[in-house]
Write a structure and sequence with these properties.
Layout: E1 2-5, E2 21-28, E3 32-33, E4 36-45, H1 47-65, E5 69-75, E6 77-80, E7 84-92, H2 95-112, E8 115-121, E9 124-125, H3 138-149, H4 155-163, E10 166-170, H5 174-186, E11 190-194, H6 219-230, E12 235-239, H7 248-253, E13 257-260, H8 265-278, E14 281-288, E15 291-297, H9 304-307, H10 320-323, H11 328-346, E16 355-360, E17 365-370, H12 388-391, E18 392-393, E19 403-406, E20 421-422, E21 437-440, H13 445-457, E22 462-465, H14 468-471
Parallel strand pairs: 1-5, 10-11, 10-13, 11-12, 13-14, 18-22, 19-20, 19-21, 21-22
Antiparallel strand pairs: 2-7, 3-4, 4-6, 4-8, 5-7, 8-9, 14-15, 15-16, 16-17
Helix pairs in contact: 1-2, 5-6, 5-11
The chain binds zinc ion (ZN).
Length: 475
C-alpha cells in the first residue's frame, strides 16, 4: 500500500499472521539540515505520478525481498518540527528481509517518487530539492506529449520519430541553453551534450538552465540533470571535453542531427566537414551583439564553406566575452535551432537548407539570404578550409623573394616605396601571378579576401600582408 496524505500520520498497528519480523521506519522533520537551523518543512508531490510510482515501488519491494506486507505513507504539505513525514512499515517472515526491504524502500523513495522537499531556514528556504531522477514511465510519457501529439504534423507517428531521434548539441552555452529544454520537451529520445566548460557566473544571464549555486560545476553534468528533471524518459549522453579533430568523427557519426551552439569558427568548420563526410545534418547558428544568423547544412545542399569560403582572420569577430551579448539573442537563435531539428525530424515546413536567416533583435527585422553550392568547395567534399595562418604573412622580411602586388585602387595613396606591381582589386589581373606573391591593401582585409578566393581557384603560394600599408613602413 502506498498513500499520500496531507493529514498528520497516525501509526497503525502492524498485524500480519505468519510474519516473524515487523519493521517500522518513521522519518521526522528535523530542526537542522547541513548545519543550518530548520524551522519547518514542506513536501509537494505530483499526485498522479507519485501514486503511480509509489505503487510500483511497493510491488517491487514485495517481490524483491519476499515481503508479506508493505505500507508506505508519505505526508505532503507543510509540517512542523517533530512531525512524521514518512512512515514505512514492512512485515516479513524473517527480520533480515524486513530490515533490508525497509532500507531499500527509503532509498528508492527519494530518487524515484516525484515528491519535492523545501526546508525553511532562518534566512529563507532551500527551494525544492530531491527527486532528481524519476524513472521513465509510460503514463508520464503519454501525458507529457499529449498537447503536441494533437497536432496533425506530429501525431503518434511523429512522436515515435522524435523518441527514436539522436541529436548532438555541441556547446551547452547560450544557444544550447535555449535549444536543449525544447528538444527535451518535444520528446527527442537521446541527446548528446559536448562541452568542456564549467558553469561561470558571468554566463548565467544567457545560460538560464543553470543555477547560481552550480557555479564551478560541469555544464554537461548540470544540463543532463536539468533534462532528466524535465523529462525523466530522455537519455542524455555527456561528453565533458572539447570537440576537436581527434573526436569529431566518432561524435558526429553517432547522431542524426548536429546542433552547433559554439562561437568557435574552427569548430564550425570541423563540424561542417564532418557532417558532410558522414551525411549528417548540421544546424549552425552564430550571434554577435544584437544579431544572429542561422542555417542548416544538409548532406546534398550548400555547406557552410560555400557561403564563407575563407575562415575569417582570428579575432575578426569578437567573442561574447569581448564584445558583450544580451541573453535574448542566443536565446532566440537557440530556439530557432531546436525548431529546425523538429521540422526536419517531423518532416513539415521548410528547412533553412538553401538560405541563411539573419535576425536583428533591435529592430525585429529578419532577412533571408539565398545560398547556393559553390563549385569545387572543399567543405562540400568534407575537407577543412586552409587555416588563417596559411593565408597571411606578418612581414615582407619573411618572404624577400616574393612578388609584391598592391591591390589598392589607383586613387589610394601614397605609392609603395618598394618594388611592386599594381593591379587594383576592382580590375585584378591574375596573369601577374607568375611566381609566389604577397598581396597588399590598406589594412590587410581586402588582400586577405582576395588571397582566400585565389587559393580556392587553385593559386598556391599567394599571401596577404597582415595589417596592410597602415601597419608597415612601405609607403
Ligand atoms: Zn560547400
Amino acid at each position: 500500500m502506498f498513500l499520500l496524505t496531507d493529514k498528520p500520520i497516525q501509526i497503525p498497528a502492524q498485524d500480519h499472521g505468519g510474519a516473524g519480523g515487523f519493521v517500522t521506519f518513521e522519518g521526522k522533520v528535523r530542526n537542522h539540515a547541513d548545519g543550518r537551523a530548520v524551522h519547518r518543512l514542506e513536501y509537494e508531490a505530483y499526485p498522479e505520478l507519485a501514486q503511480n510510482e509509489g505503487d510500483k515501488l511497493v510491488a517491487e519491494a514485495i517481490a524483491r525481498f519476499a515481503l508479506l506486507a508493505v505500507s508506505v505513507i508519505h505526508r505532503v504539505g507543510v509540517m512542523e518540527i517533530g512531525e512524521t513525514a514518512v512512515l514505512i512499515q514492512v512485515a516479513s517472515a524473517h527480520r533480515r528481509e524486513a530490515f533490508a526491504g525497509c532500507e531499500w524502500i527509503i532509498d528508492q523513495l527519494k530518487i524515484r517518487v516525484p515528491i519535492w522537499k523545501k526546508e525553511t531556514y532562518q534566512e529563507g528556504d532551500s527551494g525544492w530539492i530531491g527527486a532528481d531522477v524519476l524513472a521513465p514511465d509510460e503514463t508520464f510519457n503519454s501525458l507529457f506529449t499529449t498537447r503536441q501529439r494533437t497536432l496533425e504534423e506530429v501525431g503518434d507517428n511523429g512522436q515515435e520519430k522524435l523518441r527514436n531521434s539522436r541529436v548532438l548539441l555541441v556547446g551547452v552555452g547560450g544557444l544550447g541553453s535555449a535549444s536543449l529544454p525544447y528538444l527535451v520537451g518535444a520528446g527527442v529520445g537521446t541527446l548528446g551534450l559536448v562541452d568542456s566548460d564549467s558553469i561561470d557566473p558571468t554566463n548565467l544571464h544567457r545560460q538560464v538552465i543553470y543555477q547560481a549555486q552550480d557555479a564551478g560545476r560541469s555544464k554537461v553534468e548540470r544540463a543532463a540533470a536539468f533534462s532528466k528533471r524535465l523529462n525523466p524518459g530522455v537519455t542524455i549522453e555527456t561528453f565533458p571535453y572539447q570537440l576537436d579533430e581527434s573526436n569529431v568523427d566518432s561524435l558526429v557519426q553517432a547522431y542524426d542531427w548536429i546542433v552547433d551552439g559554439t562561437d568557435s569558427l574552427a569548430i564550425k568548420s570541423l563540424l561542417n566537414a564532418a557532417c558532410r563526410r558522414h551525411r549528417k545534418i548540421l544546424v549552425s547558428a552564430s550571434v554577435h551583439r544584437f544579431e544572429g544568423q542561422i542555417l542548416t547544412v544538409t548532406p546534398d545542399g550548400p555547406c557552410l564553406q560555400c557561403l564563407f569560403p575563407e575562415p575569417p582572420p582570428e579575432k575578426c569577430v569578437g567573442t561574447c566575452a569581448e564584445t558583450g551579448i544580451l541573453g535574448v539573442v542566443p536565446g532566440l537563435l537557440g530556439l530557432l535551432q531546436a525548431n529546425e531539428v523538429l521540422k526536419g525530424i517531423l518532416g513539415y515546413g521548410e528547412l533553412l537548407s538553401e538560405s541563411m536567416l539573419l535576425v536583428d533583435l533591435r529592430t525585429g527585422e529578419t532577412t533571408s539570404l539565398r545560398r547556393s553550392k559553390r563549385a569545387g568547395c572543399p567543405g562540400c567534399a568534407g575537407q577543412l578550409p586552409s587555416s588563417t595562418e596559411d593565408l597571411e604573412v606578418n612581414s615582407l622580411q619573411d618572404c624577400p623573394e616574393y612578388l609584391v602586388v598592391d591591390i589598392r585602387e589607383f586613387d589610394e595613396l601614397p605609392e609603395l616605396s618598394i618594388p611592386h606591381i599594381r593591379t587594383p582589386l576592382s580590375t585584378f589581373n591574375r596573369s601577374v601571378l607568375t611566381r609566389p606573391a604577397v598581396l597588399i591593401c590598406a589594412s590587410g582585409a581586402r588582400s586577405y579576401r582576395l588571397v582566400a578566393q585565389l587559393r580556392a581557384e587553385g593559386f598556391n603560394e599567394i599571401f596577404s600582408l597582415r595589417g596592410g600599408v597602415m601597419e608597415h613602413s612601405i609607403a
